[in-house]
From TrEMBL:
Name this polypeptide is given: Protein GrpE
GO terms under biological process: protein folding
Alphabetically ordered keywords of this record: Chaperone, Cytoplasm, Stress response
InterPro entries found in the cross-reference section: GrpE (IPR000740), GrpE_CC (IPR013805), GrpE_head (IPR009012)
Origin species: Pedobacter jejuensis
Gene name tied to this protein: grpE
Subcellular location: Cytoplasm
């Protein structure tokens, strides 16, 4: 029995020694691999962070691109709508003048005297000019003014009746107009030479 106990103790010592050797080897391996493992973990973490950041930036880019594309579509649609309704306010303001012309035409059918009809037409004309002036339309003054290519288009030159009218507008064939100080139609004029 004593021998058996001694054998068991010996076996336990051998096993403990082997376990110690294995533990020491494992610890040595862990210690030697630990710096590499930590570096690998740090590299993997850094790589994952970079991939997440790239994914986030890519997502941000796609959202911004989609938002810009939507903005372009929306502004194009608004521009089309604006072009379709650009003259709406002018036309609405001209409707009363159109009504006045209709009444004048009816009055001309039954009128025996021309003077009241002429007076009515002058009132309608004045109303039309005032409505257009409120929208920014102005006549270009031409007669007896110096010829100016910014406002006038010369149709022909004629000999000036006197020296004071040389280089000036003698006659106006077609009126010119400006809209908010921008020429929308040049005055067609005759210039003295």
């Amino acid at each position: 029995m004593f021998n058996k106990k001694k054998n068991n103790d010996t076996e336990e010592n051998i096993m403990n020694t082997e376990n110690s050797a294995e533990n020491t080897e494992a610890q040595n391996l862990e210690n030697s691999e630990a710096p590499e493992t930590v570096e690998q973990v740090e590299e993997q973490t850094a790589e994952e962070k970079l991939q997440a950041e790239v994914q986030q930036l890519n997502d941000k880019y796609l959202r911004l691109y989609a938002e810009f594309d939507n903005y372009k579509r929306r502004t194009q649609k608004e521009r089309v709508e604006l072009l379709q309704t650009a003259g709406k306010d002018v036309i609405v303001s001209l409707l009363p003048v159109l009504d006045d012309f209709d009444r004048a035409l009816k009055a001309m059918d039954t009128a025996a005297d021309v003077a009241p009809v002429k007076e009515g037409i002058l009132l309608v004309s004045t109303k039309l000019k005032n409505t257009l002036a409120q929208k920014g339309l102005k006549d270009v003054e031409s007669i007896n003014k110096d010829f100016n290519t910014d406002f006038h288009e010369a149709i022909t030159n004629i000999p000036a009746p006197n020296d004071a009218l040389k280089g000036k507008v003698i006659d106006e064939v077609e009126k010119g107009y400006t809209l908010n100080d921008n020429v929308i139609r040049f005055a067609k004029v005759v210039v003295g030479a």
